[in-house]
Write the structure tokens for this entry.
Amino acid sequence: MVKVLMYSTAVCPYCVRAEQLLLRKGVKDIEKVRVDLKPELREEMMQKTGRRSVPQIYIGTTHVGGFDELFSLDQQGGLDALLAS
């Protein structure tokens, strides 16, 4: 299965929901980058994604976006294919 990277914080309910959705899809390992612990990591995230909010999710080299985009991708049937690539 492809690598999943998620920029997150400790108290983000959307991060929790994104992680739960990915786990239900069979993702066993999510690399979490806690931007609340190191401000320079939030800067890195903002440079890469152009966004300030969390979660910011990468599946492989594809920037999916936040939870809303992840959920929408799943509803449209595209998440399984992306995870399998």
Notes: The two ends are 7 Å apart (CA to CA). Residues 4-84 form a domain with the Glutaredoxin fold (CATH 3.40.30.10).
